[in-house]
């Protein structure tokens, strides 16, 4: 009888010890995540790489592209766990490099004068630690560029069986013409635990001088939050962006924002999804308008592998441009490549700065 009691006591002690060890591990991890969390300050000057000297001119026709490259990790077969799929990290380093090279090929084929990229990683477990800005810059040697951080996460042990890990990511603006300055501004994000999955959202404002003019050509770039449930935060992000645009529109500058808005710019909205609600045009800065393609979708859902005939796949138009009224849009289209390298497709617009 005593032996049985002793065994039960021993088993009890072992179980308590195991529980305490797990509690210590979990507690230590929570402390680590909170300790690692930080947001960059507002109004940060950005570094301009490979500066150019040629200046934009009024009355000339230019082309601009905006493209969420999905950090090179979303081929057509990919279905992402945050959307209800199974995949977490990119399949391999070679798969990421291949996707980024396909993006570069698309850009060089279209030959845009200006471009915005979203979801470009440089220290990402999810993208197999490929330095994507370095690869893109090497593939676009004739462009000046600005890289702006908008995501910096601690190691996220989620999902537990296949953790997405640690990542640094951002947005990039590139140009064949002189960029005289670029600034990073913070966007509002959720303040609850969700902030650890939506870190440090931001937008960049790049200022380009116009030859023989005191006005400026101003390029905004951003990637608004996708997986937040607080619609007040979504609205605040847009209003913050619109308020900054107003400063330049009121001065008569020429303003374009090329972005992934995670709102439907054209076509059918999907209010049941956090990332395809209707875009609030009624709140848009006075003197600005939406210019979006209608020839093909710009995004696919990631709950299933890509199949345009599968009714379970959701498609929409959430990438495009906000344009000031002194800019004439001549043509806009989605480059339909069947989502070969990303869950998004690039959008290109021909335009001119009116005299």
From TrEMBL:
GO molecular function, one term: hydrolase activity
Keywords of the record: Endonuclease, Hydrolase, Membrane, Nuclease, Transmembrane, Transmembrane helix
Annotated transmembrane regions: 12-35
Keyword Cytoplasm: no
Record InterPro entries: Endo/exonu/phosph_ase_sf (IPR036691)
Protein name: Endonuclease/exonuclease/phosphatase family metal-dependent hydrolase
Organism field: Lactococcus lactis
Lineage: Bacteria, Bacillati, Bacillota, Bacilli, Lactobacillales
């Amino acid at each position: 009888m005593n032996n049985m009691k002793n065994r039960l006591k021993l088993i009890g002690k072992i179980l308590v010890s195991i529980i305490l060890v797990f509690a210590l591990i979990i507690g230590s991890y929570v402390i680590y995540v909170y300790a690692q969390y930080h947001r960059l300050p507002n109004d940060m000057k950005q570094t301009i790489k490979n500066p150019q000297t040629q200046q934009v001119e009024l009355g000339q026709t230019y082309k601009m592209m905006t493209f969420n490259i999905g950090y090179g990790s979303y081929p057509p077969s990919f279905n992402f766990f945050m959307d209800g799929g199974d995949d977490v990290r990119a399949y391999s380093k070679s798969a990421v490099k291949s996707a980024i090279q396909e993006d570069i090929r698309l850009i060089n084929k279209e030959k845009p004068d200006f471009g915005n990229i979203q979801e470009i990683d440089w220290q990402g477990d999810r993208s197999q630690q490929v330095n994507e800005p370095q690869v893109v810059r090497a593939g676009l040697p004739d462009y000046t560029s600005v890289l702006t951080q908008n995501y910096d996460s601690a190691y996220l042990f989620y999902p537990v069986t296949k953790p997405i890990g640690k990542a640094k990511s951002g947005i990039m603006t590139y140009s064949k013409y002189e960029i005289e300055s670029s600034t990073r501004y913070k966007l509002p994000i959720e303040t609850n635990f969700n902030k650890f999955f939506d870190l440090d959202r931001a937008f960049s404002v790049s200022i380009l001088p116009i030859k023989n003019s005191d006005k400026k050509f101003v390029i905004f770039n951003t990637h608004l939050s996708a997986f937040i449930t607080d619609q007040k935060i979504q609205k605040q992000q847009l209003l913050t962006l619109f308020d900054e645009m107003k400063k330049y529109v009121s001065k008569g500058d020429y303003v374009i924002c090329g972005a992934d808005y995670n709102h439907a710019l054209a076509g059918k909205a999907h209010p049941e999804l956090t990332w395809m609600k209707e875009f609030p045009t009624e709140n848009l800065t006075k003197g600005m308008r939406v210019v979006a393609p209608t020839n093909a979708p710009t995004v696919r859902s990631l709950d299933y592998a890509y199949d345009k005939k599968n009714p379970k796949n959701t498609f929409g138009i959430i990438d495009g441009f906000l344009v000031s009224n002194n800019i004439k849009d001549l043509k806009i289209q989605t480059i339909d490549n069947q989502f070969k390298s990303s869950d998004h497709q690039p959008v290109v617009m021909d335009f001119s700065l009116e005299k």
